[in-house]
Amino acid sequence: MEKFHWQLATVQSVTQETPRVKTITLALPEWIPHLPGQHYDVRLTAADGYQAQRSYSIASPPEQTRQIALTVELIEDGEVSTYLLEGLAPGDSLEVRGPIGGYFVWKDNMKNLPLLLVAGGSGVVPLMAMLRHRTAIGATNPAVLIFSVRTEDDAIYQRELTQLASQDSSFHLFVTYTRHSPTGWSGYQRRIDRAMLTEVLNQLNPAPQCFICGPTLLVENVANILTDMGLPANTIRTERFGPS
Amino acid sequence: MAAFFNPGFGSKRKASNSDRIPPGQYETDDFPVLTAGPTPRIPLDTWTFSLDGLVESPQHWTWEQFNALPHQSVTNDIHCVTKWSKLDTHWEGISIDTLLEHVTLKPEVRYVMAYSYGDYTTNMPLDDLRNGKAFIGLRFEGQPLAPEHGGPARLVVPHLYFWKSAKWIKGLRFMEKDEPGFWEDGGYSMYGDPWKEQRYSSDD
Among A67, A95, B145, B184, which is least packed by CB within 10 angstroms? Predict the structure, then answer.
């Protein structure tokens, strides 16, 4: 069994990804190689001893050694996300422990199997770690990311994903805007539905390993459709989050 | 690292209900959904619930038979290992004590493996299911339990982290020795006491 103990990381950089999302890169004194999809727990302590913890997916691939990148979305009234996004600067210390989680992970023995990634909003973070690792190990398995966002302002990693799609012919990116699409947009502009998943799945043969991460409704909906389409339940891995 | 603190953190927090929120948890009014895979759809005409393993004679109920057992209403606080706690949740269901009246356990039974539709499993000591501590939840907040929250029936063990409250419950298997279930096998705590913050195996 892995040992998870708290360590004091140092903030190396804070990068604005979108108006409500930042990536915090941390240097870890005891860095352990993680699997893409795993998370770290972050613990904040007030001067009076009060503590609060949250879990954040790792955005960086394990090839980025000695440090981890956590991409954090600002949650309204969220005591931890507010502090992380508004109160942290390079050089500050932060208590973390991990890497944690052994199920929602893309393992190297999946590198030759087709891969279907489905993200809603900041659910893209653990999937980005998978794509970054996939690129780093030179995998050429057919891979698709369906990324559902409300508006362009919610499309985290948009530039990197677009660039990856143009450079890697085995990777296809489908962004769908559910509330407001950019001017001149000719792609999807609706919630993920059966027709969309059918079009995308037609490009993946044999049946893919599926990773779905996002708000509960999106994950429930997509997982139900994929199950209805006949994909085995044990090839569909989900990570749901509420507004917490 | 006890002396470490984050400057400026914690000044705006709400103090209400703090004695009912275990360490590292926060209160939410939502009911988040956490599951490793798709939500199984379980037809009620083929649904069964079983008590098996180290029992003199295994017991099985159909949905109709199970619902004919005496129900009780329970109000409790629930605590998820992903850090949220939800206070004053209202349930209706069947006490494990009621179910245990229908089997004779072998004397060596100390542990239980709860198993579910969709192949989820989770382990706990027998004593944590007895004497009013746990029940099979059938209704939540006055409504039939929704599939994404574990319906038609889920185990509810409110004094342990909520992953022990197996969704889509199919039966309880009685054991002599403790064995890890799905998350426990992946490094989570064998017991999961929120008040001792037993999240991972290294916290036990």
Answer: A67
